[in-house]
Write a structure and sequence with these properties.
elongated; 85% helix
Length: 136
């Protein structure tokens, strides 16, 4: 009994790997966002706790705000890199899976929450840290 496959199994396996990779990267993006949001929240709590301890702690609050800005820029950079990588994988998935391509074309044009998550949230956090740095 010889090999009766004509490459179909290999193509199906490759398609499955591509789809799993697409799902994995989508999941990673949300996990990264959650990590950065939790860390930002902890920094904000530390900042407010230090401020309630008295005026002698203003330099410490400024350090936390400055760190918050640097952390937010890191969040923005990581998000941007991952966004570009995900778009490349998504392009491959659109070319390979007609159902996925059709789903993407049926969503309202011009509106995607992904850029808001990737660029909007870090931008809002950066503005918050800049304002907190200025007022302390």
């Amino acid at each position: 009994m010889g090999d009766t496959t004509d490459g179909t199994d290999e193509h199906q396996a490759a398609d499955s790997r591509l789809w799993q990779h697409c799902l994995h990267e989508d999941n990673v993006r949300y996990q990264q966002g959650n990590l950065f949001l939790v860390a930002q929240s902890l920094l904000a709590v530390a900042y407010s706790t230090i401020l309630t301890a008295g005026d002698s702690n203003l330099p410490s609050a400024r350090v936390i705000a400055a760190f918050g800005i640097a952390f937010t820029l890191t969040w923005l950079y990581v998000g941007h890199r991952h966004f570009r990588y995900f778009r490349a994988i998504q392009h491959l998935a659109v070319a390979k899976f007609s159902e996925y391509a059709e789903t993407l074309t049926r969503r309202p044009r011009g509106w995607s929450s992904l850029p808001l998550i990737v660029y909007g949230l870090p931008s809002f956090a950066a503005v918050m840290w800049l304002v907190l740095l200025v007022i302390t």
